[in-house]
Amino acid sequence: MAKTALIQQGLLAFTLNSPQNAKPFDFELANNTKVMLLASGVLQFEPKESTSSRAIVLSAGIHGNETAPIEFLDRLVSDIFALEITLDQPLLVILGNPPAMMEAKRELSVNLNRLFIGKHKNYERCYEVERANQLETLLDNFYQSYQHLPAYHLDLHTAIRGSKHEKFAVYPFTQGKPWKKSSLALLQSCGVDCVLFSNEPASTFSYHSSAKYNAVAFTVELGKVHAFGQNDLSKLDQLVSTLQQLLSASKLNSLEFEANKAILFEVSDVVNKHQEDFCFSFNQSQANFTEYQTGYELAKEGSERVVISNGPKAIVFPNDKVAIGQRAVLLVKRMTQSDIVQAEKKHRLI
Ligand SMILES: O=C(O)CCC(=O)N[C@@H](CCC(=O)O)C(=O)O
Ligand SMILES: [Zn+2]
């Protein structure tokens, strides 16, 4: 029976047995929580008592080879099945790209995390295009059925290379709305002190939730990519305890933003690749947040040069192998403590 197989195997193994076109089914746990398998790798939980105060989405493996967050969500789901985690809030769990997980690849044909807010409509049909369409529909249905509740979405990833700040989050572009200290406090409680404030719209999963549903939504980077079974999940203990609070407590009052611990960056430049010969001047194994000074020639493409201005600036997610038209690197500028105070004074950070 599908229910027994799901509970015994766990979400990850069950999903990988049928990475596409799983048949939907539902059942109830002993504590009356309703569990619904909506599609391969997509599980919705509905607690019986309707004292909910937020609707939560947790996703991982939007890039298939990002195994630590996938294993983390797999364990979280097993703990919910075993009634070890109390669930008082509706929850949607998404394992994003199961066929790419099977091949230990970041993508099969295109980068799934560039296809949201409807961008998949501009691409030729392939697995990721269909999956983006399906995930948008399931996410939209979930948020719409809980539209009276504040929405939360943590899209969990791991980075290709090492990083001077092991865990960090991308705060989606807010379209002029202030950044929230309560959101930064939530991240700090998860063990994520380093945050990048985006400077423009994107077609990522977290931006979709933020822009369309005003969700407290982030892309969260939890360390470096490793193979399945090679991750030290004890590094995510703070994330576990904060998620337990998010999934159960009605109020999150205990979370406080600690400005002196925060490592905040503003994205100053999004450098896109326009030509096949785009290449960086530095070695791509450079850690995320490596800084370069004004005047440094970062990359070249045809006869054009990308040179650092108003430095120093740090690099994040450099990748010259991306498809033409996509982001090759983010340049970020560290906010000083006095920048943070100014942002508070000007109500950019509230
Ligand atoms: O390590 C890398 O170069 C990529 C890690 C990754 O997948 N990052 C996300 C960030 C999404 C965002 O900007 O919100 C991505 O590139 O999709
Ligand atoms: Zn990723």
UniProtKB/TrEMBL annotation:
Keywords: Arginine metabolism, Hydrolase, Metal-binding, Zinc
Domain AstE/AspA barrel-sandwich hybrid residue range list: 263-334
Keyword Hydrolase part of the UniProt annotation: yes
GO MF term set: hydrolase activity, acting on ester bonds; succinylglutamate desuccinylase activity; zinc ion binding
Record pathway: Amino-acid degradation; L-arginine degradation via AST pathway; L-glutamate and succinate from L-arginine: step 5/5
Active site: E221
Cofactor binding annotation: Binds 1 zinc ion per subunit.
Coiled coil residues, start to end: none
Protein's GO biological process: L-arginine catabolic process to L-glutamate; L-arginine catabolic process to succinate
Cleavable signal peptide: none
Binding residues annotated for Zn(2+), in chain numbering: H63, E66, H157
Pfam families named in the record: AstE_AspA_cat, AstE_AspA_hybrid
Catalytic activity: N-succinyl-L-glutamate + H2O = L-glutamate + succinate
E.C. designation(s): 3.5.1.96
Keyword Hydrolase belongs to the record: yes
Residue ranges annotated for the Succinylglutamate desuccinylase/Aspartoacylase catalytic domain, each copy included: 54-246
Cofactors that this protein relies on: Zn(2+)
Family statement: Belongs to the AspA/AstE family. Succinylglutamate desuccinylase subfamily.
Function field: Transforms N(2)-succinylglutamate into succinate and glutamate.
Name of this chain's protein: Succinylglutamate desuccinylase
Species classification: Bacteria, Pseudomonadati, Pseudomonadota, Gammaproteobacteria, Alteromonadales
Gene this protein is translated from: astE
